[in-house]
Design a protein that fits this description.
Layout (H helix, E strand, L loop, with lengths): L3 H8 L6 E6 L5 E7 L2 H10 L5 H9 L2 E6 L3 H15 L15 E4 L7 E4 L8 E3 L5 H14 L11 H5 L7 H4 L13 H15 L4 H16 L3 H15 L15 E8 L3 E10 L2 E11 L6 H15 L6 E3 L11 E3 L4 H28 L1 H15 L8 E10 L2 E11 L2 E2 L5 E4 L8 H18 L7 E5 L2 H14 L6 E6 L4 E4 L2 E5 L6 H35 L6 H11 L2 H6 L2 H8 L1 H14 L1
Parallel strand pairs: 7-10, 10-11, 12-16, 16-17
Antiparallel strand pairs: 1-2, 1-3, 4-5, 4-6, 7-8, 8-9, 12-13, 13-14, 13-15, 17-18, 18-19
Helix pairs in contact: 9-10, 12-13, 14-15, 19-20
Length: 598
């Protein structure tokens, strides 16, 4: 059974693919694992009864769980391999050996060979991968060899040696697998054109190659060679599902530090990914509590210095989301696209997940503290005299002036209080007049609260601009509530917040929690109002259809609906069922009407 700290960490893990790391009480790495779903996989360690003593001992020692979120399960597999090879955790046995995942190498030589390898040699050769399946590598190489004749010998095919006639063509030439560059029977230019086409294939751009394979499969099937056609189909399936590159391993990126930043009103989160020889070997997120109105640039600059010192990073190059000043010795790069941008996006993704988990943990440990923080923030952002513990939001709903209704939704302590929601039929306004409708519902709402001596809200939000806000203010004036309840209007287009008698709107930061709660209120009021409006409109349409039948009046319609609940049931009822409710004469008229309809 997990201790309270570990249980809390598990509760806030994401349902995403990634790699998890278990640490003991001294901060020593015990185990690294991969998961398609981090939360489910890590939870299983603390709910299963393991027969293996080694696993039981591991679970007892776990004090801290860290994780790195990645895009795919394949990336998780590769990242797990990197971390285990780098840190050699005590409880990982399977991946501690020198075996690595395979790559496809295009050798740096005059007539380049293309072959699979598990060793990367820094001699200028190109490496593509790594691949989690050797079958995928062989399929790609078979495809390449089937399309392009390449040499397989390891001779030094320098111009001088070929001119001197040092080599003779081998069996591969006579079999048609090689065109004989060793005897100058194949031009260097043509060979390199083929190598460029092969680069496209291993990068995943192999539409033309797939087209040829599919044509080959169809031809074999037409010739009734079904076994050979099936083998080609298997290759097509593998290639179509082939992932050309991994975010977590890239041989083109050498020793680099990657930093990203996510901020809100109170905290900043800076994620650090450390890459060594193109592979991620560390992920760490730093939480910084804001003291003043520091900019993201200032905070990122400070965090980079602190994190690099903490982990003793010697990298001379860093990737960041925007320019920062770190001195002349460090090369700062702001990626805009490609592999470098993908690794920066991965860092930002991990910062976002870290922030979400911190919020979830705070809610679980001390929900009141979380509410207090949000309420204090809203009071500050909206320039209120007290915390808006009770907020009410109004929205009008009508389509082409028909069935005008309004909705009032209520939030208490930043959360919806659905039992307090209210809907209004517009009674005193004729036609589509949003301003007059708003004036009516605000007046009716607070007149009733005052009459019933119910608590009033600290904040009223009007969905609309200055016009609707002015209408709502007229009602507050009539009731003597002006100045006793704070009231603002929110205009949809630019999310402008309007205050009474202030021509200049307030704009909140798009990341602001205050704005998010106001938007949630506005959206909820809109949803609630539209639902009520549609319900009313459909009922009216239903009533109108029944009332158009000669001899069927309003009272009859009410009796029918009370008994049958819907028009569909009325239409499908037989003569006897209808007669029991409305009598034989009216029942005949209904039956005749619905028979004519059908």
């Amino acid at each position: 059974m997990a201790n309270a700290s570990v249980t809390l960490q598990i509760a806030t893990l994401p349902d995403s693919p990634g790699v998890y790391q278990y640490y003991d009480k001294d901060g020593k790495l015990l185990y690294v694992g991969k998961a398609k779903n981090l939360k489910k996989r890590v939870s299983s360690y603390f709910t299963k009864n393991f027969d293996n003593n080694r696993t039981r001992l591991l679970v007892k020692k776990i004090e801290t769980i860290k994780h790195i979120v990645v895009k795919t399960e394949t990336d998780a597999l590769l990242l797990e391999n990197n971390l285990i090879k780098n840190y050699q955790p005590r409880y990982n046995v399977m991946l501690k050996d020198d075996k690595s995942y395979p790559w496809i190498c295009i050798k740096n030589e005059r007539f380049p060979r293309v072959f699979p390898t598990r060793r990367m040699i820094k001699d200028g050769s190109e490496y593509y991968g790594p691949y989690t399946s050797m079958k995928t590598v062989h399929t790609l190489l078979d495809l390449i060899k089937g399309l392009y004749p390449l040499r397989t010998c390891n001779y030094d095919l320098s111009e001088e040696k070929i001119k001197a006639g040092k080599y003779k063509v081998c069996l591969e030439y006579h079999l048609g697998n090689c065109l004989g560059p060793c005897e100058a029977l194949y031009s260097e230019k043509e060979y390199h054109e083929n190598i460029e086409a092969i680069r496209n294939i291993v990068k995943g751009n192999f539409k033309d190659s797939l087209h040829k394979f599919k044509s080959q499969m169809k031809t074999l099937a037409a010739d009734l060679k079904f076994e050979q056609a099936q083998r080609i189909k298997e290759k097509i399936d593998i290639l179509e599902n082939y992932q050309s590159k991994s975010t977590v391993v890239n041989p083109k990126i050498n020793n680099v530090d990657v930093f990203s930043i996510i901020s809100d009103e109170s905290y900043t989160y800076v994620n650090f990914l450390q890459l060594s020889h193109g592979a991620i070997i560390r992920s760490h997120t730093l939480e910084i509590k804001k003291k003043l109105d520091e900019t993201d640039e200032e905070l990122l600059q400070l965090a980079i210095v602190e994190i690099r010192q903490r982990f003793n990073s010697q990298s001379k190059e860093i990737y960041v989301p925007f320019e920062v000043e770190l001195g002349e010795e460090i090369k700062v790069h702001v990626p805009k696209l490609g592999d470098k941008k993908a690794i920066l996006d991965l860092s930002e993704r991990n910062a976002k997940y870290f922030r979400m988990e911190k919020f979830k943990q705070a809610k679980i440990v001390d929900p009141d503290r979380h509410e207090k923080r949000i309420m204090a923030q809203m009071k500050k952002d909206l320039r209120l005299s007290e915390e808006p513990r009770h907020i009410e939001c109004f929205d009008n709903s009508n389509i082409q002036g028909t069935n005008p209704v309004a909705a009032c939704v209520v939030f208490k302590n930043g959360k919806p209080s659905k039992k307090d929601y209210r809907k209004f039929n517009i009674k005193t306004v004729v036609g589509p007049d949003d301003f007059a409708s708003m004036e009516e519902v605000v007046y009716r709402r607070y007149k009733r609260l005052l009459a019933e001596e119910q608590p009033l809200p600290q904040l009223i939000i009007i969905d609309g601009g200055k016009g609707q806000l002015s209408s709502a203010l007229k009602s507050l004036d009539k009731l003597g509530l002006r100045g006793k309840i704070a009231i603002i209007g929110i205009a949809k287009r630019l999310e402008e917040l309007f205050y009474p008698e202030d021509p200049i709107p307030l704009y909140l930061d798009k990341k602001s929690e205050t704005l998010k709660i106001i938007q949630q209120l506005r959206n909820e009021a809109h949803r609630f109002g539209i639902t009520f409006h549609r319900s009313k409109r459909s009922k009216q349409a239903l009533n109108t259809e029944l009332e158009t039948i000669p001899g069927i009046g309003e009272k009859t319609v009410i009796d029918l609906l009370k008994h049958f609940k819907s028009t569909k049931r009325i239409a499908s009822a037989n003569f006897e069922e209808l007669s029991k409710v409305i009598g034989a004469s009216r029942a005949k008229k209904l039956i005749a009407h619905f028979n004519n309809e059908s």
